[in-house]
Prior knowledge:
The protein is elongated, with a radius of gyration of 24 Å. By secondary structure, it is of the alpha+beta class. Helix content is about 20%, strand content about 25%.
Amino acid sequence: MTSPSKPSPAFVELTPGDPAPWFHQRSTRNPSYAFDMAAGRYIVLCFYATAADEQGRAAIEGVLAHRHYFDDDHFSFFGVSLDPKDEAERRVGESLPGIRFFWDFNGRVSRLYGAIAKGAETVNMSVSTEVRRFWVVLDPTLRVLLVVPFALDGSDTARLFADLEQLPPPDRFTGVEIQAPILFLPNVLELELCRRLIDLHQCHGGAESGFMRDVDGKTTEFQDHNHKRRRDYLVEDPDLVHGLEARLVRCLYPELLKAYSFKATHIERHLIGCYSADEGGHFRMHRDNTTRGTAHRRFAVSINLNSGFEGGALSFPEYGPRRFSPPAGGAVVFPCALLHAVSPVTKGRRYAFLPFLYDDEAAKLREANSLFFDK
């Protein structure tokens, strides 16, 4: 009587069109690299396991032989190592722009992408472990384009770069220029109301604002002038708050319902922001709902209160380099999950009204997550 064979380990199987899993993992320079921030260009992930053997070394050498591809504008490369000795013995290393490595010694990324089995424990490269090696190419919205398994004869590298050579520019990765899924609405706030908000900010001066990150289970505010530079004032006058909400309900909510089938019921913060050329005002790429304390946010609203400044435009890198700057009183409205940035203001000051919108279900989430907000 033969004993039953052990079931084969289950692996994630990614195919073209699948959304690539997002993750945080230690990289060659960053202790917790947020992979979703890499969107906006083609991404080449190489699950090479270890640079200690011929297959792993050949893959890395193939990348270095095509170094000119990886400029962080068109392509970025991320090698995924399972072997702590790759770091300890400096077998591989970061080369900016464009070439980085993840130290995936706990197997977090490799499990998500199918390089090791879903239930695999921390990998020990010194013992027999079932590891699959392959390349994954992602489009600028972080969806899978190609999966190329390693070949014993090393032909996978040539095949990979032959395929990369055929790809269109990142801003036309679909074959045509595409529009970010946003609303661009003029005439949301009256010019008189815009002027009143600017005067209010100028009277109080505003305070430097930061950005949110989760640290040790708590959503915490950080400040880093390299990432963001803006001065904010929170409107608290009840009559002014009522007037602002009335305009949003009248001029913005119907378009939100029409375009997204979303019925907003709550507004978070009635905030006036100022990006000043004198301070190099800007906000680098980010998403607005990636922490526990901000997960309830559904749509962001950016209403310009003035004109005459230069720079300070919104962009959505996953969908191309086009920049958006509505006229005074006009709004850009977009899902909080979209990667976006505000370019540096190079002349004058850009004043903007910057609320977030959410619904009743999201309000329940906000209440549940309030415990995790580090006030």
